[in-house]
Structures are given as structure tokens and as C-alpha cells.
Amino acid sequence: MEIKWIEDFIALARYQSFSRAAEFRNVTQSGFSRRIQSLEQWVGADLVDRSGFPPTLTPAGQLFRDAAADILDKLFDTRAIIRTEQRIAGKSLQIAAGHTIALNFLPAWLRALAKHAGEVRARVIPANVHDSILMLVNGNCELMFAYHHPQLPLHLDPQKYEYVTVGVDTFMPVCKPNQRLAPTHRLPGARDRPMPFIAYTDTSYFGRCFALLMERSKASPALRLHYESDMAEVVKKLVLEGEGIAWLPKSSIAADLDAGDLVAAGGAEWQLGLELRVYRDLGNRSELLDTIWRHLRASSAPAE
């Protein structure tokens, strides 16, 4: 049993709608439904009555909701106490970020920050989008970095959480080159010879980026699932080993593209532009955070 299943269930009880609860939880509706079913299998009873609209909780679901909410509150309170005790002493930041951002963006960003704010000790906690948001909302980090696309919003209350755009990225299809330095696989591909595809899980952020691209695409690519992962670094390694075609953020493969180890497997119509944003809780008024935030806002302001 996973904690996120309980959080999904509590969201469903609140919204009484699979689609709205899935949107709130930043997952696809099909992925959300599977997780609710997994929770029901673990409990051993139906928790949701799906026979009417809106869906309602069964008696077992009502009993489980009360216990689950109490358990989650205690778990998160205990985690907050532990994380507070584990914070770095002195002038420090706790940062939540996706794995790709933590590996490919934050090291240089922190070096640049030191030139303006002096030495800042930072603890970077790589996490998926959902866990990063929870860290920010629960006060377990000062800054949260995440990708953004207008059609894949994070649903953070703008009255409570502010953001600054600190970069842009491109989610693009790539593969190994052949001996002529041309793409081994080229989109959209041929139906009689579908290309081996290294995919993301449906519930990951990049999985949702890929789904959005497919919704917008005029032509359906000829792909056959070869591998699947929720981490871009795993996907990247498989592509570099020649296992197939995959979509990756350009920031994570810039050196590989320059060296010719990877090549684009399709044109701009197969790409998705993303913003890189950093978020803060407006209720956190630490002097260090305010200083850093003023610098970020000034750096992101358009030149006149």
C-alpha cells in the first residue's frame, strides 16, 4: 500500500469526481482510477460506489476515510518535525526539485546564486512533481523547482504561492545516429516497422507531456513499447545504449547532442516547449528567502 493511494482517495472523497480529483492530484484520470482500485484491493472492499453520479463513498469507504485522514495528519506532522531537526544549520535552503532539474539545472544555478547572495548551504531533495508540491505546501522546503506548461498546470493557489520563471526547455524526441550520422529512427515511422519506444509512466510529468503531444499531433507515430520508466535519467541511458526512440528534455542531453551521440528524431511538430519555474510560499518571510527572491525577480524581469 502506498501513501499516494490514500491521498488520492481523500481527494476523491472531497471532489466526488474522478476527473477533478485526478486533475488536483496531477495524474491522468486512467492512472488515478487504477490507484483507487489498487487501494480497494489492498483494503479488501469497495470504497467507492460507482453506480451513480456523482460517485459516493460506501460505508467501508466512509470508515476508511476518517481513519486515513487521521493517519496522514500524524505522518506528515511527524515528518515535519524530523525534517526540521535535520535542516542544515545557519544560512541554508531546503530545495525540492524534479530529478532532471536537480541534476542538470541546479548545480549551475546555485553557483550563480552564490555570486549574489554569498555562500548558501543548500539541501537539494530530488522528488517527483507530486512530492515536491507536498514539500512546499507542508513547509518542508523554501524553494520548489518544476516544469510548467499551460495545459499541464500544477494547481497551486496564486494567493499563497508565487513563482518566477528561471529558464525554458524543450521536450524533444531523440535516438542514436546511424553510421551516416542520420537518425536511426525518424518520426512518424512506418506502420509495418514500428519503432522501439522508451516511454514514461502515465502518471509521471513527462508521461503527461508525451500524452499532450500525442493529443496535439496530426499524425500518430508508429511506436511499440520497449521499456518504461518514470525517471528521465533511466530513459536517457537506454536511448544512449541504442534501445530505441524517446522524448527527453533538451537540457539533459545538450552535451550528447553537441557530441553527436544523440540526434533529433523529429522536427518541431514533435516537440513541446516547457517553462522552468521556481515557487515559494508567500507565508515564509525568512530574510534569506526574501533576498534571494528579490534577486530572482530582478533577473527574470524583461529588459526595457
UniProtKB/TrEMBL annotation:
Keyword line? DNA-binding, Transcription, Transcription regulation
What GO molecular function terms would the record report? DNA-binding transcription factor activity; transcription cis-regulatory region binding
Q: Does the keyword Cytoplasm apply?
A: no
Where on the tree of life does the source sit, at the highest rank? Answer: Bacteria
Residue ranges constituting the HTH lysR-type domain according to the UniProt record: 1-58
**What organism, scientifically named, is this protein from?**
Caballeronia temeraria
Lineage in the entry?
A: Bacteria, Pseudomonadati, Pseudomonadota, Betaproteobacteria, Burkholderiales
Q: Calcium as a keyword?
A: no
Q: Name one Pfam family in it.
A: HTH_1
Q: Which PANTHER family match?
A: HTH-TYPE TRANSCRIPTIONAL REGULATOR (PTHR30126), HTH-TYPE TRANSCRIPTIONAL REGULATOR YJIE (PTHR30126:SF2)
Question: What's this protein's name?
Answer: LysR family transcriptional regulator
Hey, which family's this protein in? Belongs to the LysR transcriptional regulatory family.
Cross-referenced InterPro entries, in alphabetical order? Answer: LysR_HTH_N, LysR_subst-bd, WH-like_DNA-bd_sf, WH_DNA-bd_sf
